[in-house]
Amino acid sequence: MELLKQYYAVIFTNTRTVGDNGYAEMAAAMETLARKQKGFIDFETARDQLGISVSYWDSLEAIANWKANLDHQVAQNKGMSDWYSWYKVRVCRVEREYEFNHRKSK
Amino acid sequence: MELLKQYYAVIFTNTRTVGDNGYAEMAAAMETLARKQKGFIDFETARDQLGISVSYWDSLEAIANWKANLDHQVAQNKGMSDWYSWYKVRVCRVEREYEFNHRKSK
Fold it and tell me: What are the tens digits of pLDDT across the range B44-85?
């Protein structure tokens, strides 16, 4: 088994309020901005009734820096006032991982 | 800050193959079965282009037991042969969490 380089996942689970209210534009801008941050690794997102976005970072410091980013703080405040009826954030350390790729497995 | 009782998240990120092929029925059955397992805490799922499902467990042992569950193994095999073109599984330890509820915050 390969040794896993330590990294972290931030699981952001949420339910939206009704209507867009500028959400889609801000969400796209925040993803673009997150991808430019030091320590950013990857971002995955999906939504149907529930929204789940997971961002991956190489340290807890990188996560703290992103949370404190001024543009991101504006978005976080709009998130609470306008966009989300509920959310939960979980900061996690990835302990192990494995991957399946259908084409490679044949 | 409250002390967090240690628990774990399994992040299952995936892309589907084309067509249902019995997937929806099996996914529902597996969620029902997972919820009955010892150590199960919660399950969250969302899909648009990407599927992200996160299950939460109270120990690594509970996660290992669920992975080894015979009915779940049948589903895992069908997942590789029929349902998923790609997936990645990350087993994570939740280090901290916080929650927002719009109604409670007013």
Answer: 999 999 999 999 999 999 999 999 999 999 999 999 999 999
Assess if residue A99 is contained within a domain.
Answer: no
Inter-chain residue contact B52 with A52, CB threshold 8 Å: yes
Q: Could you tell me if the ipTM is greater than 0.90?
A: yes
Q: Is B77 exposed, middle or buried (0-12, 13-18, 19+ CB in 10 A)?
A: exposed
Structural domain contains residue A106 = no
Q: What is the reported pTM?
A: 0.94
pLDDT tens string B1-19:
567 789 999 999 999 999 9
8 Å CB contact of B60 and A95: yes
Q: How far is B84 from chain A (nearest CA, A)?
A: 7
Query: 3-state DSSP call for residue A37?
Result: coil
CB contact under 8 A, B88 and A98: yes
CATH assignment at residue A16: 3.30.70.100
Evaluate whether residue A102 is within a structural domain: no
